[in-house]
Amino acid sequence: MADPILKVEDLMKSFGGVVATDQFFFDIQQGEFHAIIGPNGAGKTTLVAQISGMLKPDSGRILFDGQDITGLSAAERSHLGLARSFQITSVFRHFSARQNVALSIQARQGHSFRFWKPAARDSSLTEPAMKILSDLGLANRANVLADNLSHGEKRQLEIAMALATDPKLLLLDEPTAGMGAEDSARIREFLGGLKGKYSMLLIEHDMDTVFSLADRVTVLVYGRGIATGTPEEVRGNAEVRAAYLGEDDAAHA
Amino acid sequence: MELTRLKGWLLAIGFVVLVAVPPAVTAMDETFYITLISRIMIFAIAALSLDLILGFGGMISFGHAAYLGLGSYAVGILAFHEITNGWLQLFVAIGGSAVVALIIGAICLRTSGIYFIMITLAMTQLLFFIGISLETYGGDDGLPTDRSEFAAFIDLGNEWILFYLILGFLVLCMYISWRLINSRFGMVIRGCHENEARMQAIGFPTYRYKLLAFVISGSMCGIAGFLLANLTEFVTPEFMHWFRSGEIMIMVLVGGMGTLFGPVVGAFAFLMFEEIISGFTENWPVIFGPLLVLLVLFAKQGVWGLLPKSKAGDG
Ligand SMILES: Nc1ncnc2c1ncn2[C@@H]1O[C@H](COP(=O)(O)OP(=O)(O)OP(=O)(O)O)[C@@H](O)[C@H]1O
Ligand SMILES: [Mg+2]
User: Fold this and answer.
1) Mean pLDDT of B159-181
2) Domain at B48, CATH number
3) What is this structure's pTM?
4) What distance in angstroms lies between residue A24's CA and the mean position of ligand 2's atoms?
5) Within a domain: residue B201?
6) Which candidate among A7, B1, B11, B170 keeps its CA 20 to 30 Å from the CA of B310?
7) Is B25 among the domain residues?
8) pLDDT one-digit tens code per residue, A61-84
């Protein structure tokens, strides 16, 4: 069998006394849509930060496509095909939507030690950027400064920027965070459309989305993976029900 | 970053006025203005170069006078050893500034915030004290120097020709900066200023881009130093004093950080103001200080930033 696209072995990370990632093991198979759920503060974002290379684990290993990437920088991981989106919107506020996406495309086209030709008029950047913006329904907002986009549009741009790096594995940290019901439904539909095209790790609070889209679900509580399995298996898991699902109906909201 | 029609016109008019300065002031028998405007244009180059890293890259370098000093000492020291070839001096001024900027940048870009400011300041003070200790080259008394020699038709002994050479360099530096800021490289530098973590996440190894920007900025300021030594026919460690770094930074603030051509306007505003007010009172900073505070409070993007902007997304 092929290597899993991502394999995390015995990952540990603590902040002072808080253990945010605790002896965590898991893997994502090629093409798999894997969801992580867990209560607030469970360590989901911390996990994404370590996988994407923005935070150094205290110990443990991360393998991407069979290669140990634990020591690589975030930029190096991005070039291998790892992309992340941010729970807290992290766009370039003073660039237009198109420029935001074009920067991701520029990054994947090799080095940027090019000093003369205006990037704004470089069709090898603007055309693919427009393509991705239209996929996300932002084509008519391409020239708007990211700062002037609505919250929902910023969240869409957040995903567009990750997609534009042409990844093999997408790490999406609560892509619908803070979005209205209508907008988030649209984004979830869009994510459903990505299923099968990319290997994906989705962090999401909405149980309906998770259980309808994910191939497998991992439940994270206090930094520990307490269960991994198909949506049915996880739903039926007694420990999960006790620790999370059963007790916390708010999670369904 | 596109220029609006208004800004384009202002730049064109500014250029025509500058071209007319030498004949006009000679006709009015006020040739002193040729030297004053020459000096202002030199500082405009320095401010422009600082804005590349300060306004666009978000790197608060409080030591830009270092390159002003290095550029001028390249002229002074080479001339002292009877190497007066202008091209060679210019090459050494740019190259020397680049090497020093590479060293300073490599160190201080590993830090950020107040540490970055303090290290750039400290490094420049170090160069200042080295300048003072160079007894052979005049120490703190400075060193008189001859003007650079280019091919016969560029005789820098002629104030007009020196003026137009400086103007030519100013226009060249403005054009290069404009291309740079809009290029792929420029987008990376601006992106690092906005959100460096995101830049890394989408695949940019940001350190090397910022370092190169730091070197380019220092080299450009080295050109200003080369021109300053030629204008004053004198080099002194004073060119590297932290006070000078502060002045260059104020010019950027007055003109507008991250506005590219604003700092050029800022250099004119600052030095003209100094010239006029210092004729009335020794204590001109007492007047200038509060004005600067007002400007920074009410016009965050300086005087150039008060002009209307081009359409969204193009800056
Ligand atoms: N940089 C940090 N410094 C100190 N503590 C941190 C830091 N980042 C996260 N933590 C702590 O680590 C724990 C896990 O945080 P994390 O943000 O990963 O949770 P999460 O599962 O993403 O939560 P949420 O659902 O609210 O997004 C929390 O207790 C948090 O306070
Ligand atoms: Mg989180």
Assistant:
1) 96
2) 1.10.3470
3) 0.93
4) 16
5) yes
6) B170
7) no
8) 999 999 999 999 999 999 999 999
Query: Which fold, A6-89+169-185+199-252?
Result: Rossmann fold (3.40.50)
Nearest ligand (C-alpha, residue A223): 1
pLDDT tops 60 at residue A251: no
Q: Within an 8 Å CB–CB cutoff, is residue A140 touching chain B?
A: no
Give every CB contact of residue B101 below 8 A, 6+ residues apart in sequence.
Answer: B67, B214, B215, B217, B218, B219
Give the one of A54, A103, A143 whose C-beta lies nearest to B187's C-beta: A103
Pairing of strands A199-203, A33-37: parallel
What does the block give as tokens for B30?
A: 């006020």
Q: Parse chain A into domains and list their residue ranges.
A: 6-89+169-185+199-252
Task: Identify the pLDDT of residue A215.
Answer: 96
> From CA B192, how far away is CA B59, in angstroms rounded?
10
Provide the residue range defining the domain that includes B73.
36-306
Q: Do A95 and B197 touch (CB under 8 A)?
A: no
Question: For residue B315, is it within any domain?
Answer: no
Tell me the pLDDT tens digit for each residue of A38-51.
999 999 999 999 99
- Ligand 1: residue whose CA is nearest its atom 24: A40
Which ligand 1 atom is nearest residue A48's CA?
A: 18
Number of domains in chain B: 1
- Best of B183, B184, B193, B217 to mutate (most A CBs within 10 Å, chain A): B184
Strands A67-68 and A18-28, by their bridges, are unpaired
pLDDT digits (tens, 9 = 90+) for B237-272: 999 999 999 999 999 999 999 988 999 999 999 999
Residues B42-86 pLDDT 10s: 999 999 999 999 999 999 999 999 999 999 999 999 999 999 999
State the smallest CA–CA distance between residue A56 and chain B in angstroms.
Answer: 14
